GNAT family N-acetyltransferase
Amino acid sequence: MGDYSWVHRTDDVDFDELAHLYRMAPLGDKPPEALATVFGNSMFACFVYADGALVGAGRALADGVDCAYIGDVAVHPDHQGRGLGSRIMRKLVELAQGHKKIILYASPGTEAFYSGLGFLPMKTAMGIWHDPARAIEIGLLDGEHSQS
């Protein structure tokens, strides 16, 4: 498996390399400039390297007291299935300790994974998406209760 090195600052991150990781993971096509903004505005970040190559990343947007939101955990396919995603999640939860709540939204089918990390389903979570039709189509939003 090899050793991983961990970085928690964005100073030396190559955001083109991060954008490539997100495409490979696959978490979609996220432009390097957008990734630089979201990681730069996040209180906590993890970048994981193997032999100098970026193989994992994650971030938590947090306010320092009340709420931390974990988003965008990506692991390169060659390193998936080795527990690296779980390690990134555990590190982000550890970094966010002390917040009243740590939240995330899970893609359908991943609930058991997050449950194994201590997350419980929320009964009252609501969201406004930029593209609600797509979010409903892929199961992130419940379209049955939307107002027309």
